[in-house]
Specification:
The protein is 41% helix and 20% strand. The chain is of the alpha+beta class and 384 residues long.
């Protein structure tokens, strides 16, 4: 086994965009054009007439040469190669051996591109990679071992994905099962707190002297606030008292293009001083912050979501909420001490589940590292 430069045993042919292209295959435009989209999904959406093109056959190695995914290697379909791709070949390596070697170098190629505008593969970096070059029969044995190990790693990753989904389902069931609804009466949100709307955004607010930061739909998610971008809005002194947020206020999204996102709810954390809210976010203020959490967890539960969808649905098939609809939402009627007990139980269990999910996320990272380690060892001659 000898160590050689990749540039001494492999070569590339850059693709090019044909002069004539059509989006339908016919007798004139018969050759699939392998652009980045066809490279990704294995199906061409454009066709050339075969004139002045760079060809590739089924299974040829293509490397993304230009763009944000530069350095990504994959298999070709038969056709003409697009201008952002290059065909990589070697007379000294099997296609699979070369494929896995290039795959192992994706991070280096992608994070060390050439060019200040559109990034592209640095040829100097690519062709100066060193590679162990055994005989082709030995290359085939190494590839078989790589596939075995990567298959085991991929199987583990699938199991981790299933585990993560199960934890999510378990978290939902924890919230639902903590609300013991046997022989329990219901009340409405309006009887527990005050429900108010926000500011309607219009052009006249741009000229108002008094401006305050305000929450939009894009800032409020399920039990989560995204405050990376908070805009300002004009507001009058008379409006300010009604729309000013206070720590502990429950925020409910009035409407959304997706029925699953309608009524998503979170609690205002008070992190931005003098913050107000848009009319598409409805605010509920309770006497106790524990009630805010209690109502939020109920609305996040399966039963609470069912109540939201019940009032949000309309005869036209659209889903919308309003102050009156939110005010009428049914909530299990318990005293403040019971509310606190329910909230504490939910948060204890959610904390445990979050720790487990964090552990799974760490295993995903280890899984990726293990895959890279297998590839690195394979081309150092250390794979067992």
């Amino acid at each position: 086994m000898s160590i050689v430069r990749l540039g001494d045993i492999a070569y590339s042919r850059k693709g090019k965009k044909p002069t004539n292209l059509a989006n339908k295959k016919d007798s004139q435009y018969f050759l699939p054009y392998v652009d980045i989209k066809a490279f990704e999904n294995g199906k061409a959406s454009n066709y050339s007439d075969g004139q002045d093109v760079v060809l590739c056959d089924e299974g040829d190695l293509l490397l993304v040469w230009d763009g944000s995914r530069s350095g990504l290697v994959g298999r070709a379909i038969r056709g003409s190669i697009g201008s952002t791709l290059a065909r990589i070949e070697s007379d000294y390596m099997t296609t699979d051996y070369l494929y896995y070697f290039l795959h192992s170098k994706f991070h280096d190629l992608n994070t060390r591109p050439r060019g200040t505008g559109t990034p592209h593969v640095d040829p100097t970096l690519l062709w100066n990679f060193e590679i162990n070059l055994p005989e082709k029969n030995e290359q085939e044995k190494i590839v078989i071992r790589i596939k075995e190990l990567l298959s085991d790693i991929d199987s583990s990753r699938r199991n981790l994905t299933v585990a993560k989904k199960l934890f999510s389902v378990y978290r939902e069931s924890v919230i639902a099962n903590t609300f013991n609804l046997e022989e329990r009466e219901f009340t409405t949100i309006s009887k527990l707190g005050s429900v108010t709307g926000g500011l309607t955004k219009n052009a006249s607010r741009m000229s108002m002297v008094l401006k305050k930061p305000y929450l939009r739909v894009a800032n409020v998610y399920s039990n989560k606030l995204d405050l990376n971008r908070v805009d300002e809005i004009g507001v009058t002194e008379n409006e300010l008292k009604r729309v000013l947020l206070r720590k502990g206020d429950l925020l409910i999204v009035e409407g959304n293009g997706s029925p699953e996102q309608i009524g998503r709810t979170a609690i205002w954390d008070g992190s931005i001083e003098d913050c107000v809210h848009q009319n598409h976010i409805i605010k509920v203020r309770f006497e106790h912050q524990d009630t805010s959490k209690y109502v939020m967890y109920w609305l996040l539960s399966i039963m609470g979501r069912a109540e939201i969808m019940k009032v949000a649905s309309s005869t036209s098939g659209l889903y919308t909420l309003s102050i009156s609809k939110i005010s009428s939402l049914k909530i299990p009627d318990v005293d403040i001490e019971t509310q606190r007990e329910i909230v504490n139980k939910i948060e204890e269990r959610i904390s445990e589940i979050s720790n487990l999910m964090n552990s799974v996320s760490a295993l995903f990272v280890q899984n990726d590292s293990l895959k890279q380690s297998v590839l690195n060892k394979a081309f150092l001659g250390d794979l067992k």
